[in-house]
Amino acid sequence: MTDLRIVERTVENHANKITARGVQVHYGDKHALKDVDVDILDKTVTAFIGPSGCGKSTFLRCLNRMNDTVATARVKGDIRIDGVDIYDRRVDPVQLRAKVGMVFQKPNPFPKSIYDNVAYGPKIHGLTRNKAEMDAVVETSLRKAALWNEVKDRLQDSGTSLSGGQQQRLCIARAVATSPEVLLMDEPCSALDPIATAQVEELIDDLRSQFSVVIVTHSMQQAARVSQRTAFFHLGHLVEYGETGNIFTNPRDPRTESYITGRIG
Amino acid sequence: MTVIAFVLLFSAACLGYVLNLSAARSLRAGGARLHSLGSFHGGFAALLVLVPTFLFVVLWLVFQAPVIDRMTMAALPPGTLDGLETGAVQLILAEIKSIAGGRIFGTPELWKLAAADHLTGLRALSANLMVGLTAALALVLLVIARRTVAPDFRARQGTEGIIKGLMIFCSTVAIFTTIGIIASLVFETMRFFQMVPWHEFLFGTTWEPQMPIRADQIAATGAFGWLPVFLGTLVITVVALVFAVPVGLLSAIYLNEFASPGFRRIAKPVLEILAGVPTVVYGFFAVLTIAPALRSFGEMTGLPIAPNTAMAAGLVMGVMLIPFISSFADDALSAVPRTLRDGALALGATRAETVMNVLFPAAIPGIVGGVLLAVSRAIGETMIVVMAAGLIAKMTVNPLDSVTTVTVQIVTLLIGDTSFDSPKTLAAFALGFMLFVVTLGINVLALGIVRKYREVYD
Fold first, then answer.
1. CA–CA min distance A180, chain B (Å)
2. Residue B197 counted as domain residue
């Protein structure tokens, strides 16, 4: 871990965006997440790290209620976004997911044109009034995802015709297009080559100015590079959570130290 | 005797296996390093004995009957068959055979009794010869196989080669059968077009094939325009699809996306039972339930509804096609990767939006393929329309009228009094050929669409 470059960080005192208390998740008989408490700050990149099966993706999927789509999953505990309990009965998961965007491990563009991929979210949520506004949203989103220059001349091509890195940036543009407040990223670079990874990481850093970004990653270097705060999960427990610099240079828990130095995982 | 021959050849194969296996084992016990495992030496011997001997017995069984017939007829007293037609000669042969089988009618001529004795003798000779030759062949092959056992003999390659040959043979059986079917269809169709010009058949709008086939019959002169018949098939197919496609698709979408696992577990097998109902039963249903219901509906509303409507046959055929379409659509929807579904849901799409905007377009190629296969089934479906559709060919597209279909006409042309040199009978082959061409075209189209537009996700 000598190549860890921990950049100088200025974590301003942002307000809490997401507060989770006592979150438990069961998949059938499997207790996947045990009593997780965490506060996620606004306009900050928060990284979840930990060995496979430790519950970090599970927790991420609690934040936009994607676990609802898994028949066997049960979520207990209290998760609030801006003070609103997202598991309250009055909250419509569909509305919630418009506010909490998600990017997946594998690029999953729809088999539609690039334009339609990005325009899909705004269209189903009625965010634009006319074609000109839609064009503007598509362009801004693709620019935010650093993809505009590569695709502006072929917006009508199929989204699946792009390269892997471009597809993932398209998925980010698609998630950004609904103007979410929180962006969840589940190992967004695991299917990408180093160059595409660098582009996506740069992008994450840019997105921080507008969203609260939560990223699950297997790469500790990536966590160190892009995040301001890091949470370490192990066997369903949130072991340690704090400023990224502290976690990597001065971990308090022995398990965290073992993991970042490569002894467990 | 046939049973003995088969027992002989199978026990020879087993013997070969055991002999070679033990030979290989004793070689290895003697310190030699064998290229192949003992079981491969054994398997090679078994196959080497089995395959040629089996072929020999089968060929013998196929060819012994005609050869014996020829020899019997040739041994008749000279001059017996002079001036007789083929039919009469066949009759004599049949009589001799039944005498040989112990069924004697009246008092046959002496030369027939002698011929029957001769026939019985030939049969016994042939059976003995077959068993003897089988045994000899098996023995020779056993010796050859036994002599192959050696440390560096590649028995594994040999065994695998023979098995591969068997597999190639099996996989070509279907192909050659298809070629045979096409050839016979084409041959009969050519004969038909020698009697009726092809343009009259393809573009004619009158279908009255019930022409006289014997001089004493009184009937129409015959008209062979297939258009009204094909139009009838099309009308029924369209009715069936208009009913089956929406119902099948919606049920697939419901089962795939919305139904609880419990409901799905019950509903899907029940839907698939529909596919197992014999088409005759569907035919009953059309004739006894749907057609009377339509008729009384017609009486109530004053619509002119024929007793045998295209509607009744089409609707019931539609019911038959529902499980076909829904299971294809279900497979196609299930094949859409989960990540795509999650992607749409994570954007805040509702389930219905996810299905309509994302899953359905992604599944379209599979669904179109399924629908086209259903079309070719509907076109070729026979039993329902034989029972529920009419017999009169009409140039009409009114589904409340009575129409006939290609398959119904083929059936009616080939039952009852037939004569294979009359255009009336041969017209059935021409119709069958056209049906074959149409369904083949649709199947090729369906496979092409599925292949071309299939999204590769991984």
1. 9
2. no
